[in-house]
Write a structure and sequence with these properties.
The protein is an all-beta fold and 128 residues long. The chain is built from no helices and eleven strands.
């Protein structure tokens, strides 16, 4: 059974950086598309970034970002450690929310419904 555990959230100021990590256990992460979503108070869960697994021929490790985080956030994975990362630079108050890691076997899309496995989330608060 796949389990996901996020870490790295915290309280930072506008312009600061954070790196989130998501540890996958129970399966080989290299077989899974993995993603980050976030949920701000009063809002729906929002897609942030995803990375296809290295084992897919057509989308081998391809990365996809939401427009709002392009050029500021970087998603990466270390499948030797079964871990997904999200490097967040130049954080803004609009980035505040609970960040969730998600995984789905082989492939997935930007929408949350295409992911079968979720972590409990890690909270990120950006003050102005």
């Amino acid at each position: 059974q796949v389990q996901l555990v996020e870490s790295g959230g915290g309280l930072v100021q506008s312009g600061d950086s954070l790196r989130l990590a998501c540890a996958l256990s129970g399966r080989d992460s290299s077989l899974y598309a993995m993603a980050w979503f976030r949920k701000a108070p009063g809002n729906d869960r929002q897609f942030v970034a995803m990375q296809f697994p290295p084992t897919l021929n057509r989308n081998n490790s391809r990365k996809v970002y939401a427009d709002s985080v392009q050029d500021r956030f970087t998603i990466s994975r270390d499948d030797a450690k079964n871990t997904l990362y999200l490097q967040m630079n130049n954080l803004q108050p609009a980035d505040t929310g609970v960040y969730y890691c998600a995984a789905n076997y082989r492939g997935a899309l930007r929408d949350a419904a295409s992911y079968n496995h979720w972590g409990q989330g890690t909270k990120v608060t950006v003050s102005s």
